Amino acid sequence: MRQPIIISACLAGLRTRYDGRAFPHPHLDHLAAGWTLVPVCPEVLGGLGIPRPQCRFMGGDGVEVLEGRARILDRTGRDRTSHFVRGAEEVNRVVQLVTPRLIVFKEGSPSCGVRRVDIEGTRQPGCGVTVALLRRHGFSILTEEDPVEAYDGTST
Ligand code: SF4
Fold first, then answer.
1. Is residue 15 exposed (0-12), middle (13-18) or buried (19+ Cβ within 10 Å)?
2. Number of domains observed in the structure of the chain
3. Which SS3 state, helix, strand or coil, does residue 141 take?
4. Cis peptide before 100 (omega within 30 of 0)
5. N or C: fewer beta carbons within 10 Å in the chain?
6. Ligand 1, atom 5, residue with closest C-alpha
7. H/E element holding 7?
8. Cβ 92 under 6 angstroms from ligand 1
9. How many A from CA of 16 to the centre of ligand 1?
10. Residue 154 above 80 pLDDT?
């Protein structure tokens, strides 16, 4: 039986990005052949629409958002922090239900970014809100930028 992978919905080809587009994983067919893909979009699960204004961190990354020391604003200046936290909690619920073999998220996103995100308009080291929450629960996360060979033998 194929094991489940939690994957960012946009990487699975779903048009969930802020601009209504997808960002298919470069090895999507390979992943779909070997695993059962479970797509999640934290921002949609958090109540944001498609399309939606692009968002960025103010004052820190996803870790600092969870600690109440940073916020996420959209391009109109509206505070969207609560949507991002709610989306992270919903994804955590899915992860607990599925107990995936692996989690693969879209790099750079304020929800799904693993190694870098936009803070005050500049790309910086840091992680998204959902990644920060899942790490609190002991999960490790890869991105579409990691070589697909790294997925084999990696456990959450
Ligand atoms: S929140 Fe994550 S899954 Fe949703 S569109 Fe952004 S990167 Fe993709």
1. middle
2. 1
3. coil
4. no
5. N
6. 17
7. strand 4-8
8. no
9. 6
10. no
Q: Which two tokens stand for residue 103?
A: 């989690």
Convert the pLDDT of each residue in 97-111 to its tens digit. 999 999 999 999 999
Per-residue pLDDT tens digits for 87-136: 999 999 999 999 999 999 999 999 999 999 999 999 999 999 999 999 99
10 CB within 6 A, ligand 1: yes
- Answer whether residue 73 is part of any domain: yes
Q: Which amino acid is at 124?
A: Q
pLDDT attached to residue 1: 81
In a domain, 156, yes or no: no
CB 55 within 8 A of CB 65: no
Among residues 6, 17, 1, 34, which one has the least CA distance to residue 109?
17
**Structural domain span for residue 54:** 4-151
- Ligand 1 touching residue 83 (CB < 6 A): no
Cβ(55)–Cβ(42) under 8 Å? no
